[in-house]
Amino acid sequence: TAKLQTVAKAAGKLYFGTATDNSELTDTAYTAILDDNTMFGQITPANSMKWDATEPTQGTFTFSGGDQIASLAKTNGMLLRGHNCVWYNQLPSWVTSGTWTNSTLTAVIQNHCSTIVSHFKGQVYSWDVVNEPFNDDGTWRTDVFFNTIGESYVPIALNAARTADPNAKLYINDYNIEGPGAKATAMLNLVTSLKQQNVPLDGVGFQCHFIVGELPQGLAANWARFTALGLEMAVTELDIRMTLPSTPALLAQQKTDYTTVISACMSVAGCVGVTVWDWTDKYSWVPSTFSGQGAACPWDQNFVRKPAYDGIAGAF
Ligand code: XIL
């Protein structure tokens, strides 16, 4: 059967990729599939470029985990997505419980974004500079950044990232913006305003953590509203979970749902690629986050391709 990067490329997309994590790289049966650049043309570190991993103490940066993923991408000839600079989650406690003013926290954001983006300069295709800024109702998430600085923390981070690596594509990434609705509208309004103000921004990431049989309607039409602004977009964290145990019927519906997502990317010219949030159920984040759910990836926990695999391969 066709390999997924091969078919994505032939279809005019830049990449089909996957998240991976440092702890998974000692599993040689896993890496035997991961390292095939006809299967995966892009990787994203699931954790090792996040704030708690890269700046656990203020001003002290650790890049060993991120460097391992970056060098894997280089060795394998794969694109790398940097994930992420500014996010409310997986923050070290010095950030969340610090006593900040607008000006001191601005300097912290600038130093963090600038240092990590500079470190990986030349190695990263695109950076999720800001991750998950909105609540599901489209209001701003009231995290330490918004509460201290207001929405201008977003351009502050984007400007610092652009200066640090002018060639990296800069993204804002979120979930529950894939179909139309209040949260998608909030994101559209934000990126429209950033573009109008000439803030550096190249793309929007649609995470696509979906549930079998419950995909949002109108994916392609919604995505096209963003690319109409001159932005690119990507499916950045695709997985489609089900209530366990999996059944043949659920796996068949999952295949249909994966097909729907790839087809939506195919019908939007500015959709540059699709990343699954790990390719095997063995290392999916889903079971530990959504109780009773799982089997969300295109390969099962024994690295056997599921019907979803053929859905992806057939839809590019
Ligand atoms: C997840 C990782 O996969 C897990 O290993 C970790 O424990 C929690 O974070 N949205 C994101 C990703 O942007 O960073 C998250 O990754 C999944 C949801």
From TrEMBL:
It is an enzyme of class 3 (hydrolase). Its main location: secreted. It is found in: Secreted. Pathway: Glycan degradation; xylan degradation. It catalyses: Endohydrolysis of (1->4)-beta-D-xylosidic linkages in xylans. The keyword Secreted applies. It comes from the Eukaryota. Its EC number is 3.2.1.8. One of its GO terms (molecular function) is cellulose binding. Keywords: Carbohydrate metabolism, Glycosidase, Hydrolase, Polysaccharide degradation, Secreted, Signal, Xylan degradation. GO terms for biological process: xylan catabolic process. Residues 1-315 form the GH10 domain. GO terms for cellular component: extracellular region. Belongs to the glycosyl hydrolase 10 (cellulase F) family. This is Beta-xylanase. It comes from Phlebiopsis gigantea (strain 11061_1 CR5-6).
